[in-house]
Specification:
Layout lengths: L4 H22 L27 H10 L7 H15 L8 H6 L17 H6 L11 H13 L5 H17 L8 H10 L5 H8 L15 H14 L3 H10 L4 H15 L23 H13 L2
Helix pairs in contact: 1-11, 1-12, 1-13, 3-6, 6-7, 7-8, 10-12, 11-12
């Protein structure tokens, strides 16, 4: 049974808002030694309370390009908009900073083009495509991811994350996370090394040092969290307990839980939602409508 228009819009809206809230929740713990994660929203020095990071800003910039006539045009518009928005973006990763001609930490130079940033900002694009439109979805994700990233692992992780979100709001999809991943792997020409990494996914254990900017490690982390939590806030806390790139894992896992279970994920009941800096991303409602229209008219 297909979702009603209102139900579909609610699914998309909840997922995108949950992404932003998870991002704002996770920035407090990012790359810190995590001793205890509280379910309350905490502040961060030199950061507006409840403010989101580049994860949300870049995701919205990417989603906004889906109205373009072709994948290549979407990528072109994204890069142009990225340059215009650069002065207002907080927490930019090494690949994005490099793309903007900004300085990159010496310790992060090796991550340029290889980080989890492509997946981070294109994952929600999956919401705009029906499961049956996988070919078109892959064309857009490929172009948008390659606008900043070049490594096979970064591009593949972006494809898989987008597929997960496409399936998440489909009332007719009964595929598991592992089955969706397997489908995407079969649709791409992957190396033996990458194949072996995914073969080991069932035995994956989060590293004690925290989740790095590695795209496959980040993919494994947020799907591990999403698959074991039914409520969004629990996913946020679980994500941040892993340490490392907590805002990205929190945003992606919380959004996926919300997309799968918009009615039962208890997102709207989170006590601190009104403390998120929604004013900074007031255009989000327009983006939500854009994503809904693209999905509904596919």
């Amino acid at each position: 049974m297909q979702r009603s228009p209102d139900a579909l819009h609610r699914c998309i809206s909840t997922a995108i808002r949950a992404y932003a809230a998870g991002d704002a929740f996770g920035v407090h713990y990012e790359f810190k030694e995590v001793k205890q994660v509280t379910p309350e929203l905490l502040g961060l020095e030199d950061w507006p309370f409840g403010g989101v990071s580049d994860d949300t800003f870049l995701s919205l910039l990417t989603l906004a390009t889906l109205t373009q006539s072709s994948p290549s045009k979407s990528a072109e518009v994204f890069l142009a908009n990225l340059k215009d928005a650069a002065p207002t973006l907080r927490g930019l990763g090494p690949t994005t900073r490099h793309a903007l001609g900004m300085s990159v930490k010496e310790s992060e130079v090796h991550l340029i083009g290889k980080s989890n940033g492509a997946m981070m900002r294109t994952a929600l694009c999956g919401l705009a495509f029906l499961v049956a439109d996988a070919a078109q979805r892959r064309e857009f994700i490929d172009a948008l991811a390659r606008a900043t990233h070049s490594s096979d692992e970064a591009i593949l992780a972006a494809h898989i994350a987008a597929a997960l979100f496409s399936h998440a709001i489909s009332s007719e999809s009964t595929f598991t996370t592992s089955e969706i991943i397997a489908s995407e792997l079969s649709a791409h020409d992957i190396s033996q090394e990458i194949s072996e990494k995914f073969a080991a996914r069932p035995q994956w254990v989060a590293p004690s040092s925290g989740i790095s900017l590695d795209p496959i490690e980040t993919l494994f982390a947020f799907t591990w969290v999403a698959d074991r939590n039914q409520e969004v806030l629990a996913a946020y806390v679980d994500s941040c307990s892993l340490g490392g790139d907590t805002d990205t894992v929190s945003a992606l896992s919380g959004a996926l839980v919300a997309a799968r279970n918009p009615e039962t994920s208890a997102f709207e009941s989170i006590s601190w939602l009104d403390q998120i800096g929604w004013d900074e991303i007031s255009h989000m409602s327009e983006i939500i409508d854009l994503v809904y229209e693209k999905r509904a008219t596919s």
